[in-house]
User: Which sequence fits this backbone?
């Protein structure tokens, strides 16, 4: 007898439907899986058999053949355990075919017959629209996010058989934890990271604000202990909630990567990723065998990618960032196929300007010019070029720590950021960092005094043509933050000049 | 350039052997004429090379080619017993057994000589002081001796070269590498100018590359060549303190330029002052140390008159005496310390907005009162 059970497998951040065909025939007892299964799928033979037996169901002492269609596609993951088990039950007559008609199954089996959650239920459910979908209890809530799919949850194989034949009610998915509700821009409830915790560092705080408002990548240059990490972790709090489309995209990516999703399942807040500098190129951009896993840059999609000690990352990893930074997505190609991951994030880099740790302070740093130059070269010029903002961050002095000046909280700054972002959207770009240079005349006109200031800088050789474009985008954001949608004024340009990325910041002591 | 004689060629051949150090060379040449010493080393019979470390290399060396190479490079080979060897080094306990010179070794004689040395990672303050001190001393006819290194040494030589196109005393440099290996490469132009106007000495044979051992060793020659040693900026246990030590052993006075107590680059020099070295504020203080003050007729900057105008402006700004500054510019100027100051610090101390602080900094830079490098702001003196 034959049974065909619908299911799905992950390919990158997408899923593709798979039909699990099970044939039980007379012949020497055996169990074969065909249709390009990977190791995890081949192992499911043993799991399925054990799960059936421990659930008190009988294993057919006949020849069992499982085909995973389409057979040309390589299939990975343990999510096919459940459809194979159901297929065997139907094909061997243990389960009424009518009971499973129009029902898809996804889930991993334990040897005791329990159902275990799988990665990417949101995406898998999306590929199985039009079916009733049965998933393990722990995956049910996420699967329900896809919408237009009737999701049923079951705790174990034994219970499932009873549920399918109507002898037992379907399980209720676990309720959403209440804590994450209400987390919005400027809300520090979820993370506990408030910008007000940062003492002093006025320039750095401003740089974060401008970065959040304009989507500008930031490079923080300073010695260890100066608070670079503390600052970077506060950036996501300044960003507005993700737009609905992006939120679903981010949720899919996180779901596929097996990351825990927030309370109601939908990732609404910009994510923050801080991979260690030992990260491999594949872990950074995504890839892997059989089942393409999103990399750190995709996990940071819609949010912030923080690279601490940028100089310590391998040059291959850093240069792999260049194309996604430009295009907002990364195409990972392997012999077996290729897939595209979304990867639009704000890059925050942190770096020491020299190996000695004194941060290149003139007179204090003992590194030779050559050593500093070598250290700075670890960031290739094209990558350094992606940073709009670069500032020095130094250990706060006694003046700052003892200072009683009121410090703005994340909520206050996030309010200004939201206003500035709305202005950018009014110009037809998501953020000012993406303003095309040819349209500057309309989008970021300079007033007379601003033009004079820029001219002085260009004449004195301190501002290049490329730097000029950067300054105009930054100045536009600074003006937007001030609630000023008109022409860019001198003071905006001045602040942009201060924040803009300059290579000499990395070279430490510039002495004459 | 004087032709390279037989004795010089043999001595240069010995000095140029791979792995040769100044102390080993001194033992090899001690009591032998260079030709005899080379023959003995070749035969493995030299008492200072019993384990025949240099025998093989010495056997391969072509003395004639060595002589031609030095003539080609314009490098003179000076030996202690022969004319041309710098008089101040004769009788010095650490006198090099062979000294290579590029330029005119004669400029060393007959003038007061002051060493200006310091750290390789100075502050702009240290560079300016070294450069001005060297310029003024040179203009007073004092020969400035230094090491052509990064930082203070280079700044001192640059001060001599830039300051006196005519009439100034010629500069003297003592370097650690072979005279055909310019180190640091950034000082190539300066190196050529010093050789052209004065002399560059080295005790290392041609082709000797920079390595950590050669620099402390050459510091003793700088000290031995000088009447007074001035340390401009030195870190705690900095290399220039070796020069000060070598000078102290020779009873040569050591002076130090005071620095901010917050400046790491002045830890060593401030320590020297605590130990009793004379402080140096300007060239006049050095001339006093040289017991030449009266003869030179140098006008003291701290006196009532004749201080250069540019310095007045720099000094005045620190006390708020410069007219026509806005309140913001005043506040910013007050916030900038003697050591390079980060923008963030200026921001905190001035209490101004970011845009206002940036504007004040830019205006002050335009007026030449502040200078910026790599995000650090410092006062111009």
Assistant:
């Amino acid at each position: 007898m034959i049974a065909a059970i619908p299911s799905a497998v992950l390919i990158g951040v997408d899923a593709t439907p798979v039909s699990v065909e099970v044939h039980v025939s007379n012949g020497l007892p055996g169990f074969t899986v065909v249709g390009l299964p990977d190791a995890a799928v081949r192992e499911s033979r043993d799991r399925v058999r054990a799960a059936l037996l421990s659930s008190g169901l009988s294993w057919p002492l006949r020849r069992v053949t499982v085909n995973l269609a389409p057979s040309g596609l390589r299939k990975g993951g343990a999510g096919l355990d459940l459809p194979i088990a159901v297929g065997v039950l139907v094909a061997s007559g243990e389960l009424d075919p009518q009971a499973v008609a129009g029902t898809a199954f996804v889930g991993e089996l334990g040897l005791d017959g329990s159902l275990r959650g799988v990665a990417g239920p949101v995406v898998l459910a999306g590929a199985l629209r039009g079916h009733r979908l049965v998933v393990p209890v722990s995956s049910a809530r996420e699967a329900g996010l896809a919408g237009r799919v009737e999701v049923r949850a079951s705790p174990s194989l034994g219970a499932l058989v009873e549920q399918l034949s109507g002898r037992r009610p379907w399980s209720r998915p676990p309720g959403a934890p209440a804590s994450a509700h209400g987390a919005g821009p400027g809300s520090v409830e979820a993370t506990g990271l408030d910008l007000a915790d940062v003492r002093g560092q006025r320039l750095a705080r401003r740089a974060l604000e401008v970065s959040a408002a304009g989507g500008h990548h930031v490079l923080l240059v300073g010695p260890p202990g100066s608070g670079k990490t503390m600052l970077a972790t506060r950036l996501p709090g300044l960003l507005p909630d993700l737009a609905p489309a992006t939120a679903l995209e981010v949720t899919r990516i996180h779901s596929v990567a097996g990351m825990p999703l927030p309370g109601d399942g939908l990732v609404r807040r910009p994510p923050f990723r801080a991979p260690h500098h030992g990260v491999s190129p594949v872990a950074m951009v995504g890839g892997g065998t059989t089942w393409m896993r999103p990399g750190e840059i995709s996990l940071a999609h819609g949010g912030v990618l923080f690279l601490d000690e940028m100089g310590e990352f391998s040059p291959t990893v850093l240069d792999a960032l260049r194309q996604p930074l430009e295009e907002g997505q990364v195409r990972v190609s392997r012999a077996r196929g290729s897939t595209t991951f979304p990867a639009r994030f704000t890059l925050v880099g942190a770096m020491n300007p020299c190996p000695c740790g004194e941060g290149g302070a003139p007179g204090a740093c003992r590194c030779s010019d050559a050593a500093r130059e070598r250290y700075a070269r670890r960031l290739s010029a094209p990558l350094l070029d992606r940073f709009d903002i670069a500032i020095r961050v130094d250990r706060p002095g006694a003046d700052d720590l003892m200072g009683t000046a009121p410090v703005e909280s994340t909520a206050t700054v996030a309010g200004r950021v939201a206003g500035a972002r709305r202005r950018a959207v009014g110009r037809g770009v998501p953020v000012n960092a993406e303003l095309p240079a040819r349209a500057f005349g309309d989008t970021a006109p300079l007033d007379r005094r601003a033009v004079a200031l820029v001219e002085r800088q260009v004449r004195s050789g301190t501002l290049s043509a490329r730097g000029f474009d950067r300054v105009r985008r930054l100045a536009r954001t600074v003006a937007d933050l001030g609630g000023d949608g008109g022409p860019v004024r001198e003071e905006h340009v001045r602040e942009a000049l201060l924040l803009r990325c300059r290579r000499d910041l990395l070279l430490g002591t510039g002495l004459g | 350039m004087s032709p390279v004689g037989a004795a010089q060629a043999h001595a240069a051949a010995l000095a140029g052997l791979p792995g040769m150090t100044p102390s080993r060379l001194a033992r090899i040449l001690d009591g032998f004429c260079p030709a005899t010493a080379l023959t003995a080393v070749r035969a493995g019979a030299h008492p200072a090379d019993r384990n025949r470390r240099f025998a093989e290399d010495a056997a391969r060396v072509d003395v004639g080619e060595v002589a031609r190479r030095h003539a080609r490079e314009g490098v003179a080979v000076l030996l202690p017993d022969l004319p041309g060897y710098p008089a101040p080094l004769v009788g010095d306990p650490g006198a090099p057994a062979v000294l290579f010179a590029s330029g005119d070794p004669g400029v060393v004689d007959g003038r007061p000589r002051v060493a200006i040395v310091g750290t390789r990672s100075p502050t702009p303050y240290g560079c300016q002081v070294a450069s001005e001190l060297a310029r003024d001393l040179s203009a007073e006819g004092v020969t400035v001796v230094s090491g052509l290194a990064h930082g203070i040494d280079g700044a001192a030589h640059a001060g001599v070269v830039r300051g006196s196109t005519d009439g100034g005393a010629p500069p003297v440099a003592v370097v650690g590498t072979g005279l055909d290996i310019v180190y640091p490469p950034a000082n190539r132009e300066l190196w050529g100018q010093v050789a052209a106007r004065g002399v560059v000495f080295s005790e290392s044979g041609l082709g000797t590359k920079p390595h950590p051992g050669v620099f402390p060793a050459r510091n003793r020659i700088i000290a031995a060549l000088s009447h007074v040693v001035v340390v401009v900026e030195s870190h705690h246990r900095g290399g220039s303190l070796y020069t000060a030590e070598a000078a102290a052993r020779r009873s040569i006075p050591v002076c130090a330029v005071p620095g901010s107590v917050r400046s790491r680059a002045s830890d060593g020099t401030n320590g020297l002052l605590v130990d009793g070295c004379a402080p140096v504020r300007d060239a006049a203080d050095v001339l006093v140390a040289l017991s030449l003050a009266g003869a030179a007729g140098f006008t003291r900057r701290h006196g009532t008159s004749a201080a250069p105008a540019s310095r007045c402006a720099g000094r005045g700004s620190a006390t708020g005496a410069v007219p026509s500054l806005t309140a913001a510019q005043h506040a910013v100027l007050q916030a900038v310390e003697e050591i390079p100051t980060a923008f963030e610090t200026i921001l905190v101390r001035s209490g101004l907005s970011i845009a206002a602080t940036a504007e004040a900094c830019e205006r002050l830079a335009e007026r030449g009162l502040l200078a910026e490098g790599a995000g650090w702001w410092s006062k111009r003196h």
In short: Chain A is about 35% helix and 15% strand.
